[in-house]
Amino acid sequence: METEFTPLASFGGGLLIGAAAVLLMALHGRILGATGILGGLFRLSDLSDWALRAALVAGMAAGPLVYLLATGTAPELGQPVPAWAVALGGLIVGLGVSYGGGCTSGHGVCGIARFSRRSVVATICFMASAVLTVFVLRHVV
Amino acid sequence: MRLVSAFVIGLVFGLGITVSGMINPAKVLNFFDLFGTWDPSLAFVMGGALAVAIPGYRLVLARQAPAMAPRFQLPDTQVVDLRLVLGSAVFGLGWGIAGFCPGGALPALGTGERDVYIFLAALVAGLLIARWLQARSALVTRPL
């Protein structure tokens, strides 16, 4: 399934993602990592910490709705793989990001932005692994 | 005020993920498909994010403390170990299968698409299984 090359929209969206990461650090002193934020929602030790994470996730989920209100069109979501593959992939992602200590937002944006060696290595590993996986699934199997 | 600011920050992130196309698993998988229907857009997402985050972090982390919290909470470990490398490689495997990553899927909750809920439910299951395994191995390896 082809998708349109969107350098301007993608760069603009990237600027917003970067701005969100900087704001969260400036105001709350935290790394904007989706893995950490989601994982913390399932740890009920600190209520005020839980509320902060829940507010972040609620804001994130409001993103596509505000986009719909502003542009009049819903964001496009393709369904490139069957539901069982989505479930299998989700389970594997959950295991991987737990041991890897983060995902695209935490390592790929926040970690690289503060020149963390761990995050640079992690980002190279998950990008290379994803490219290899898609190559095998689409061109070998 | 603290929660309102967190909601707004989440919204800025969610809009960024939406506008950039990271919300769309078809686009994400095409970014990885270098030898097929390659769509290089997502390189621009990372470029844009780092263009703001690198100078932004430099300015912010030069301060004594964040505005609404007592201190910055940064990971203190610097060690590149097998756990980091293998964990990240496993994440890439799942990302390449499903097309969603955690940061793409959380904003996608707002679209109401069925696949997003399937992915997030499985993701949370994976997180909890890993947490249980880690707690178990911590018990085993703890010195007596």
Topology, please?
The complex is a heterodimer of chains A (about 140) and B (about 140).
Chain A: H1 7-28, H2 34-41, H3 47-71, H4 83-100, H5 104-113, H6 117-140
Helix pairs in contact in A: 2-3, 5-6
Chain B: H1 2-20, H2 25-32, H3 41-61, H4 82-98, H5 102-108, H6 114-141
Q: What would you note in describing this structure?
A:
The complex is a heterodimer of chains A (141) and B (144). Chain A has 141 residues and is an all-alpha fold. Chain A has helices spanning 7-28, 34-41, 47-71, 83-100, 104-113, 117-140. Chain A has one domain (7-140). Chain B has one domain (2-141). Chain B is 69% helix and 0% strand. Chain B is globular, with a radius of gyration of 18 Å. Chain B starts with a helix and ends with a helix. The chains are: A mainly alpha (141), B mainly alpha (144). At the A-B interface, helix 1, helix 2, helix 3, helix 4 and helix 5 of A face helix 1, helix 2, helix 3, helix 4 and helix 5 of B.
Q: Brief overview, please?
A:
With 141 residues, chain A is an all-alpha fold.
Q: Can you give the mean pLDDT of chain A?
A: 96
Percent range for helical residues of chain B? 55-70%
Largest sheet of chain B: none
Termini distance of chain B?
Answer: 47 Å
In helices, the fraction of residues of chain A equals over 70%
Morphology of chain A: globular
Short descriptors:
heterodimer, A: 141 residues, mainly alpha, 6 helices, globular, B: 144 residues
